[in-house]
Automatic annotation (TrEMBL):
Protein's UniProt name: INGR2 protein
Residues of the Fibronectin type-III domain: 103-202
A GO molecular function held by the record: cytokine receptor activity
InterPro entries (UniProt xref): FN3_dom, FN3_sf, Ig-like_fold, Interferon/interleukin_rcp_dom, Type-II_Cytokine-TF_Rcpt
Amino acid sequence: ESSPRLPAPKDVRVYSYNFRSLLRWSPVKVDRGLVLYTVQFKTGAFNHWDEMNCTRISRTECSFPWSLKVRRWTIVLRVRAELGQETSAWVETDQFVAERNTTIGPPQLNSVTPSPNSLLIRVTPPFGPEAGDFLQYHVSYWENATSTTKKQAETSNTLFKIGNLKESTLYCFTIQVELMTHSRPQLLGEPSAPECSRTTMS
């Protein structure tokens, strides 16, 4: 390899949301020519670097290929800048494990069906579950007039009921997903924005 004379990319970070992951970095500024970038990866199992379908690209991000979708794998990435025959030093990321390091978004709220003493809520998980996944939904709800006291409910179903409510009363709630895995501390997702619905009259 030629001697590194180009500045190396900075701010090299993996961004991962609902298990969709990509590597991003800040552009290398030079006063001549177009800087290109090459990204490589290695897994914890094999200690050699592989190409990652991002060789001599001009953009400053690279999405993970399908071959790196295994959530339990430990992955290290590296990127360097290239200009003609010149290359920068490689910049490596910290170890990334999707099952530990991804950010889980809120579930999607599909419907709320009020009755006099309950709300029936249907949600869709924020990502397609894999075999062995166990998702727990944490529901916080409160009466809108007295929003200081929140009550909690937990369920593993995508259709669930918040019961023992007052009739003709506005209730608000947020939901967040917890991913239970066999091997690691559980991963708690971001709460949804508050939604409000009024129970009906009996």
